[in-house]
Design brief:
By secondary structure, the chain is α/β, with parallel strands linked by helices. The protein has two domains: 2-149, Nucleotidyltransferase, domain 5 (2-Layer Sandwich), CATH 3.30.420.40; 199-386, 2-Layer Sandwich (Nucleotidyltransferase, domain 5), CATH 3.30.420. The chain has helices spanning 64-77, 109-117, 126-139, 159-162, 169-172, 183-197, 251-258, 263-272, 275-280, 285-293, 297-321, 331-336, 338-345, 357-361, 386-403; strands at 2-8, 13-19, 24-32, 39-46, 52-59, 89-94, 105-106, 145-149, 206-211, 215-221, 224-228, 326-330, 368-369, 378-381. The strands form two sheets. It has an eight-stranded mixed β-sheet with strand order 5-4-3-2-1-6-8-7, sandwiched between helices. A six-stranded mixed β-sheet has the order 11-10-9-12-14-13, with helices on both faces. A hairpin with a 5-residue loop joins strand 4 (39-46) and strand 5. Helix 10 packs across helix 11 (297-321) and helix 11 (297-321) packs across helix 13 (338-345). The structure holds adenosine-5'-diphosphate. Adenosine-5'-diphosphate binds at residues 212-214, 241, 284-286, 331-333, 336-337.
Length: 404
């Protein structure tokens, strides 16, 4: 049983092909810089004889359709997938599912139309997700296409936490509320944390920190999301690579009135030119460390602000949860950046948080507990695997479809 997972961005398609019988990744890769002169197709194929082939091909990939063709051709040539129609399902990451979607959903015309309706809420992501879905429906038209929503896991957040204190009609008529994102990742690492701690997820209170280019924190009570830092869109909350996170909501008005910035200018600035990039000119955490190590004050300031914002959320979620069994770090920064982890945890001893500096430095891609001897809770570093989670959710859905 083979399941392809697609995560289509505005100029990229990330993919993984799984053999669900033994949960092996048969092929994975990414087509990047779609529409630019030099696009890249990076991929890794696991051949039947066990050999692993890693390749980077540089060519012009004009659009998503050509990119997807390229991906399928590559998998056919390497024989991991004879035909697109040999797939048991295709799982699609869809960023915004609004209030409609609480679980993985088989895609049909109605579902496509609902995802389209959500475009105003996720203008950067949902159109790209739709492009991937529509193309894959052409390539493999009899194969079930399943949408797995980033917002679904957060549908358990209670009303008092998801409503904004603005006129209630804006929620009732326009669905303006907190939705939360990265749900697939928060849920996946929460399940892994439960396995690691050898306790049922339903008994655990966790604070999960997904720190990548985007970033969010989730408060998990007895296995369910009860609050999260991203809001109606993925712009709210933490300081991110290029996104501002929380700001005074009066700032856009001020910019419009005093700096002659249009709504579009402001939206672009907050999403693409703010966050770490806005503060120090760089959005990649590795580059920011290099700058700070070389004495760059703006990079130091960016690091201070980044970690301070996360600390504030940890404190808030302790108050919300009462008891916390584990703090979980994941995402490119959460998994790899021991300095950021140490800086976030520094000063949180009152909450029972302290890390073991030696354990914190180990980087082996495995799940580990980096808590120090004084720590009253586990501090877990867990590699996320959104693609695997999407594949598993797609598979269970396909089974249900067949059974019913
Ligand atoms: P995305 O949100 O796009 O999936 P990732 O989860 O891959 O992003 O995270 C990207 C971030 O992780 C970048 O800021 C990158 O610098 C950072 N990162 C990756 N590896 C390391 C590392 N070894 N040390 C510090 N930061 C890292």
């Amino acid at each position: 049983m083979k399941i392809l997972v697609l995560n289509s961005g505005s100029s990229s398609i990330k993919y993984s092909l799984f053999d669900m019988l033994d949960l092996r990744v048969l092929a994975s890769g990414m087509v990047e810089k779609i529409g630019e002169i030099q696009s890249l197709h990076k991929y890794c194929i696991r051949h039947i004889d066990g050999n692993i082939q890693e390749m980077v091909e540089s060519q012009s990939i004009a659009d998503h359709q050509y990119g997807l063709k390229n991906i399928i051709q590559q998998m056919q040539q390497s024989k991991v997938l004879a035909h697109a129609t040999d797939l048991s399902a295709v799982g699609h990451r869809v960023v915004h599912g609004g209030e409609k979607f609480h679980q993985p959903t088989l895609i049909d015309e109605n579902v496509l139309s609902e995802i389209r309706k959500m475009i105003p809420l996720a203008p950067l992501h949902n159109p790209a997700n739709l492009t991937g879905i529509e193309l894959m429906m052409q390539f493999a038209d009899n194969v079930p296409q399943v949408a797995v929503f980033d917002t679904a896991y957060h549908q358990s957040i209670p009303e008092h936490a998801y409503l904004y204190a603005i006129p209630i009609e804006l929620y009732e008529q326009d669905s303006i509320r907190r939705y939360g994102f990265h749900g697939t990742s928060h849920y996946y690492v929460a399940k892994q944390a439960a396995k690691t701690l050898d306790k049922p997820l339903e008994t655990l209170n966790l604070i999960t920190l997904h720190l990548g280019n985007g970033g969010s924190v989730t408060a998990i009570k007895q296995g369910e999301s009860i609050d999260t830092s991203m809001g109606m869109t993925p712009l709210e909350g933490l300081i991110m690579g290029t996104r501002s996170g929380d700001i005074d909501p009066a700032i856009p008005y001020y910019l419009n009135q005093n700096k002659a910035m249009s709504n579009e200018d402001i939206n672009n600035m907050l999403n693409k030119n703010s966050g770490l990039k806005g503060i120090c000119g760089e959005n990649d955490m590795r580059a920011i460390h290099a700058m700070a190590d070389a004495g760059d004050k703006s990079a130091e300031r960016a690091l201070d602000m980044y970690c301070y914002r996360i600390k504030k959320y940890i404190g808030a979620y302790f108050a919300v949860l009462g008891r916390v069994d584990a703090l979980v770090f994941t995402g490119g920064i959460g998994e790899n950046d021991s300095r950021v982890r140490a800086k976030i945890c520094d000063g949180l001893e009152l909450f029972g948080i302290s890390i073991d500096p030696n354990k914190n430095e180990i980087r082996d891609g495995e799940i580990k507990d980096i808590k120090g001897s004084q720590s009253t809770l586990s501090i877990l570093v867990i590699p996320t695997d959104e693609e695997m989670e999407i594949a598993m959710q797609s598979m269970s859905f396909v089974k249900t479809e067949k059974d019913s």
